[in-house]
Amino acid sequence: MRIVSGTAKGKNLASFTGRQIRPTSDRVRESIFNILYSHLGPCAGKSVLDLFAGTGAMAIEALSRGARRAVLVDSGQQAAQLIPANLRACRLDEKAVFHRSGVLETLPRLKPERFDLIFLDPPYGQGLAAGTIQAIADHDLLTPDGILCAETAREEEVPEQAGPLEWLQTRRYGATSVHFFALLRPEA
Question: Which domains occur in the chain, in start order?
Answer without folding.
Answer: 44-183 (3.40.50.150)
